[in-house]
Amino acid sequence: MNETNEIAPTSGRPDRFVAGVRRAASRVLGTSPVGERVLELCDRFEAQRAAILQTRAPDAIIVGVVGPTGQGKTWLVRQFIEDASLRQALPSGDRTREATVRIAWVGPYPPADINDRYERYLHCEAEKMFPLGVEYLILDTPGATDQDPHVVEISKQTLSLASVQILVVRRDQLRSQVVHDLVNASEGTLVLPVINIVRQHDDKLSSDIDAYCAAIHAAAPSSEILPPVIVHDFDVVDDEATIARTTREAIGHALRPRLVEAGGAERRQRARLAAADRRFRQSLHEMISDELPYLVRAVDHLHEAADRLPVDVANSLVGSGGSLRAGIRSRLRLALLTDTAAIWFPYKTLIGLLNLTHGAWDRLVLSLSGSLPSLISSAWTTATNVGQMQSMEAEMRGGVRERSAALVRDRLGPLIRSFQQELGPLNAQAPQAMGNESHHAHLRGIDQLQHSSQQILEEEIDRGAIGGATAQLLGLAGTLIFWVLFAGPVVGLYSKYFRASSAVATDLQDHLDQFPAPEWAMLLTSVLLSVMPTAVYAMLVITMTQSNRRVQKCASKIQERHSQEIIRLQREGVLRLELDDPILADAEFLVRAGKQRDTA
Question: At 55, is the secondary structure helix, strand, or coil?
Answer without folding.
Answer: coil
